[in-house]
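Quick one: structure for this chain?
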Amino acid sequence: MSRKIAVFVGCALIFTAVSLVAMPSFREVCRDLVQKNDKSSVVRGKNGWLFLKEELQHVGGGKFWGEGAGQASRTANKKFADPLEPIFTYQKLLAEKGITLYLMPVPPKVLIYPDKLVEGMTRHAAEQDQKLYSEFYAILRKGGVQVIDLIPTLLEKRDEMNVYCKTDTHFSGEGLALFAAAAADVIKQEKWYQAVVKKEFNQSPQEVAIVGDLLGMIGDTTVEEKLKLNVVKERKSGKLVASDKKSPVILLGDSHTLVFSAGGDLHAKGAGLFDQLSAKLGFAVDLLGVRGSGVTPARIKLFQRSKKDAGYLEGKKVLIWCFTARDFTGTGGWKKIPVAPK
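Got it. Here's what it folds into:
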């Protein structure tokens, strides 16, 4: 090898090494954006995409269970930082009542669309962070918790459709349909499912224009985002689906269980996860959704209902627990909440 070639190769190797060291990880990018947006709860992405800062804090925190829980969690009381044991406990309490828990977290939007965050990011930029969830869910499954992991499906469909709203914190109408289908698929495999009396539902495609909640947070209500929804109605009565307290299926969670279903600032009625899941199953489910955290307040709501009505849990077979994954590191932490009074 000549001296010139050796020098050239050496410089190339040094340049490559420096580039690799200098290139920040996706997690580091998220942490940097959180610091730069210290006065706003919204991070502006590319081409009109908006992201909740709390979501970036969650992703930037890295491993959020075990030894990593205390550092990643935003709760003040670190003894409530680790989500593992409270989830295992809740699954066991439900099982004692004959109820199967299916955990169905909604992945961070930025985890599915990292390329919409900043210039230079590709759709593969968050792969290492996506694997964290696979690792976490594997631990839960090993401990007996059923998990509905939508990350692979969302990644597969993300270029075919916007599975999340660009200007809102929630999944889109097309995105929530993927969640409804996944939940319905596992429920239909339950032995009791075939014996439940079914109804027929009609679904009407509808395009709506919304002002996303992230736009509202930055004080811009002039931009509308168009979404495709399917409004569900009972075929016989022509009415929107009503929650059924006697349903064998409980849908428990945060505003992801209410958006496009509750109306008002949640954009529409009759087209949410609750409605879509009911239509796919052929019967109305029992909706227990809250506007706050789907972790503690939602479970408290179920407890209060079972406390008020001693027979409420009789006949319940499945609980779909759906909440934003950023709440794995939320400020409320993870406390052990009973299912029913002793």
